[in-house]
Amino acid sequence: MLENMPKNGSSDFFRDVKELFAETTRQFQETDRKFQETDKKFQDTDKKFQDTDKKFGELRRLISQLGSRLGDFVEEMVRPAAVRLFHERGVDVRQIFQNVTRYDDQGRFVMEIDLLAVDTNTAVAIECKSHCSVEDVKEHIERLHKFKDCFPQYAGFQLYGAMAAMVMPDDVARFAYRQGLYVLAQSGNTIQIRNDSAFHPKQW
After folding, report:
1. What is the pLDDT of residues 129-147, one digit of tens each?
2. Per-residue pLDDT averaged across 102-111, rounded?
3. pTM of the model
């Protein structure tokens, strides 16, 4: 039968098969090219995500540094005014110590008080924040409970607590007030005690 097939028919058949293989090969190559392009786009997108994440990390670091510096700024505002402010409230303090720090016997950090206003038998431990939160107040109360154990030289003192901040939200100020803490906040270019005349400070 094969020997009886017209030669030109056989030639057309093989030509069609060859063209079909060529078209199939071209389509495979085109598909592979598109896959490569898609993979490159994914790689580019992943690199962009990595670059964005790196930038966010740098931004978080800068914000953290800024928050620390603003806290230092608050300390510098409170420190020269603290003696006068507490004197006006009948708390007789005459010295201000900055960054009073306690370490254990192995030299490990235990506690730090931003500002400590003292006299012969009275001390006010002041925590300074750029933006004060309820959590900040709670943490300071924990420090006040541990203060005399960490600093036994003040064991016989009347110890009071205070929160100072550049930004002191009203709800946070009310919370600190109810806990018996003095509330110091920025007013214009100065720091003021916001507690009213009915306030009774808690002693620790």
Report:
1. 989 999 999 999 999 999 9
2. 92
3. 0.66
Which amino acid is it at 8?
N
The string of DSSP codes covering 40-96 is HHHHHHHHHHHHHHHHHHHHHHHHHHHHHHHHHHHHHHHHHHHHHHHHHTT----EE
Q: Among 3.40.1350.10, 3.30.450.40, 2.60.370.10, 3.65.10.10, name the CATH number for the domain at 74-193.
A: 3.40.1350.10
Mean pLDDT along residues 114-124: 95
Contact 184, 164 (CB under 8 A): yes
The 8-class DSSP code of residue 203 comes to P
Q: What residues are paired with 127 via a beta bridge? A: 163
Query: Residues 6 or more apart from 195 whose CB is under 8 A from it?
Result: 89, 177, 182, 183, 201
